[in-house]
Structures are given as C-alpha cells and as structure tokens.
User: Which sequence fits this backbone?
C-alpha cells in the first residue's frame, strides 16, 4: 500500500499595522516537530505596549488562504 501526501506550497505572512508608537514585537514562530513525519505548526506572535497580553494566532492548515483571512483588531 502506498500513502500519498499532498503538500501545496504556502507562504505564511505575519503582519501587524496601525500601532502607535510604531515599535511592535512581531514574529512568525515554528513549533518543534515531534518526528520527521509530522509537519510543524506555526503561529504569529504580536506584542505591543498597548496590548494587555501578546496576541498569538495559530496557523490553521485546513483554511483556504485565498478565501479566508484572519484579521485581529
């Protein structure tokens, strides 16, 4: 039996706009892989002095990125 895995190329972008002052801590983070067969998880981490706590948005690999966008205000 052969198991085929279909992986499509995806560009992940972590974007934060509209903050004042402009200094924002922003990073796209990759989790550690458990083993070589499991794909890594990614999240977008945003922190700013106006936020009570950092905003962390985990990438949902099941979303169709051309139809679904996540906007946090």
Assistant:
């Amino acid at each position: 039996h052969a198991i085929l895995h279909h992986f499509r190329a995806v560009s992940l972008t972590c974007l934060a706009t509209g903050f004042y002052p402009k200094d924002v801590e922003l990073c796209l983070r990759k989790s550690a892989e458990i083993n070589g067969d499991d794909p890594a998880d990614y999240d977008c981490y945003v922190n700013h002095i106006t936020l009570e706590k950092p905003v962390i948005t985990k990438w949902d690999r099941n979303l169709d990125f051309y139809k679904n966008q996540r906007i946090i205000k």
Summary: The mean pLDDT is 76. Residues 1-73 form one domain.
